[in-house]
Amino acid sequence: MTEFKTPYKTYLEENEIPRTWYNLRADMEDKPTPLLNPETLQPMTVDELSGVFCRELAEQELNDRDREIPIPDEIYHFYKMYRPSPLVHAEFLEKALDTPAHIFYKFEGNNTSGSHKLNSAIAQAYYARKQGLKGVTTETGAGQWGTALSMACSFFGLDCKVYMVKVSYEQKPFRREVMRTYGAGVIPSPSNLTEVGRKILTEHPGTTGSLGCAISEAVEAALKMAFQYCQQTGRTKKTRFMCLSEGYHGGTIGALSVGGMDLFAEMYKTMMMDNIHIKAPDCYRCPYGETRDTCSCACFEHAERAFAAHGHETAAMIVEPLLQGCAGMRIYPEEYLRKLRALCDAYDVLLIADEIATGFGRTGRLFACERAGITPDLMCLSKGLTSGYMPTAITVVKEKIYEAFYADWSEGKGFMQGHTYAGNPLGCSAALAVLDILDEENILERAEETAAWLTARMTETFGAHPNVGEIRRIGLIHAVELVEDRETKRPFDGGRRLGYAIYCRALRHGLLLRPLGDVLYFNPPLNIGRDDLNTAIAWMKASMDEVLGA
């Protein structure tokens, strides 16, 4: 038997609990970037932040001066209920790993929420009561934060209402009931109690409410859901995915597996799923000699062959509808998307539309799929959902898919996709505001008028340039592909990095012009004015002339 000399558990006494909170910001030589008011884009004031936090909490959040903040006696008394927790020396784990490292972990068995969240929840409940509030409202994903705040509110005699992501609400009844034991009201989200909830349920009545906080998460959720749907509906041989070459759907392993950009994926090839990649349309360099205006989608033969060979084993096809962004803002015909919808139906393959870059007006419609008149089985949304203010994403599914997951929890059919920050109320508020602005200010109609004007100005400025091969557009998105020879469409030597050189020049003029190789593109806000666009065009022209020669 190996002899261990250190104690298994190390305990502190209650009187050793710190009596102050340490404010790291006070010791930072370079202060963090301040919180900005999303309306004014100016640093938040205490008064403005008090609309979200209790006033004393708002003052602490913006405090850059005081290194230590006293812990009130009532909060200190509560901390003693579960603090200190023992520090456990994992000696047998060290032995199993054969490591010289010493491994310790904190045992949180006396902490009902099972996480550090109770430390903050207690303070928030205390200051809420001190300010005279009668209750608080919050959100929770997996339920740890909701549990912590429910417990804190019970201790301080506050009402607590928790909006719990619907999929977690159904999958985690025990966590839900712990919150209710503490007296909290727990509501599956989205709900009919809020404006944004009613809007989401009206448009997507079968939604599970699983809001992700990252683009890749929405894509990954769609892939997992498509796979699980097939397994739970008797389609057990359908275990693979199809995608277009040169597509990009995010940076997780699952998302990279259905992409086609080696720049991002090459390092992780051995970790990725074995998917079927279909040659994507390239309308500028069409090998069939067609143009985008007269295209009969002869290139669709690649998809037809792939489905004929692999349709029986394919769960879903994922596509960026009408626009492949990272491929160089490649725009392909609406007919291609319609043919793809029909092909998926013929082979019982789900169609996933990655509308993260194309959704919410980017292509001149609320969703790019609308331009082709098709409806996907699953849709991934982000970015434009909150106009970029909050990292919020959502995966929308058809009713038939939702029904395949709806069962008693004991059947094990639930979709396991719950996260701590899912269903963030600030994200939902931003999404609601975006939807209202789109409706009330006729944003899409105005953007389409601006797009037509922008096309004319871009053509006027760059149409005759000897190194401009094509100006392509969809909605307000406009892209200019630079070539060495306009007639033959011969590209520049990639090693020259001319797109990057033009980007650097544009920065000197005050223009942030993002290149995709030698493709320069505009993807401006939908409410941009013509004066700003004129300035951007002029600076882009000047930058091109400086690099390529006037």
Secondary structure elements and their pairing?
Blueprint: E1 9-10, E2 20-22, H1 24-27, H2 46-49, H3 55-61, E3 68-70, H4 73-79, E4 87-89, H5 91-97, E5 104-106, H6 117-130, E6 135-140, H7 144-156, E7 159-165, H8 166-171, H9 173-181, E8 185-189, H10 195-203, E9 211-212, H11 215-232, E10 240-244, H12 253-257, H13 262-265, E11 276-278, H14 301-310, E12 314-319, E13 323-324, E14 330-331, H15 334-346, E15 350-354, H16 368-372, E16 378-381, E17 393-397, H17 399-405, H18 425-440, H19 443-462, E18 468-474, E19 477-482, H20 498-509, E20 515-516, E21 519-522, H21 530-548
Parallel strand pairs: 6-7, 7-8, 10-11, 10-12, 12-15, 15-16
Antiparallel strand pairs: 1-4, 2-3, 4-5, 9-17, 13-14, 16-17, 18-19, 19-21, 20-21
- Rg, rounded, reads 27 Å
The DSSP helix count reads: 21
CATH topology of the largest domain: Aspartate Aminotransferase, domain 2
Mean pLDDT comes to: 87
Number of strands: 21
